[in-house]
Design a protein that fits this description.
By secondary structure, this protein is α+β, with helices and mostly antiparallel strands. The protein contains two helices and nine strands; from the N terminus they run βββββββββαα. It is 17% helix and 29% strand. The longest helix is centred in the last third of the chain and has 15 residues. The mean pLDDT is 91.
């Protein structure tokens, strides 16, 4: 599954085609958003600070929502706490509220979704959640690589770390 444990700054291409660091810029245009976890797994919400470092904001359980007062230029990310897989809002890994929402006094809903993932990962995750016991893997007769990956995923699900403490 995706490795997303590091806290290195990341880069993206802006509208002028220049490579820029993903970070919060200014705190001028306030927006009020509601992130809705529409997946069947917990989701960690991360905010990129002014230096581009990722700060843990909250862990959402499946089918819940969380209200955030933020700014147009502040980037947000969403990951699975166990698999480190990136989730998306409007098919984008990095969410920034549209500038047209600046000054709007009501919350807008933004759905956190699963991005298109390889079939192999989808099946492994479904099996791991269904089996939920390492002893049930060998009787399946899977090839060694799949069996090992399935066991690793079951172990990871059973040992998901708690959310980082808030500063």
């Amino acid at each position: 599954m995706a490795d997303n444990d590091d806290n290195r700054p990341i880069y993206e291409t802006d509208e002028r085609g220049e490579r820029v660091m993903v970070r919060s810029v200014v705190s001028e245009q306030a927006v009020y958003v509601r992130f809705i976890n529409s997946v069947t797994r917990p989701v960690d919400i991360w905010w990129r600070d002014f230096q581009g470092f990722r700060k843990h904001y909250v862990r959402m359980q499946p089918r819940t929502y969380f209200n955030v007062d933020t700014y147009v230029t502040h980037p947000w990310e969403f990951t699975d706490p166990t698999t480190k897989e990136n989730y998306v809002v409007q098919n984008k890994k990095i969410f920034r509220a549209p500038s047209c929402l600046a000054g709007v006094r009501h919350r807008t809903n933004w759905f956190i979704c699963v991005q298109v993932r390889p079939l192999r990962n989808t099946v492994l995750l479904a099996l791991a959640q269904h089996l939920n016991d390492l002893s049930r893997v060998p009787p399946l007769g899977l090839p060694r690589e799949l069996s090992n990956d399935l066991e690793d995923l079951i172990y990871a699900i059973q040992n998901t770390p708690p959310p980082p403490p808030r500063p």
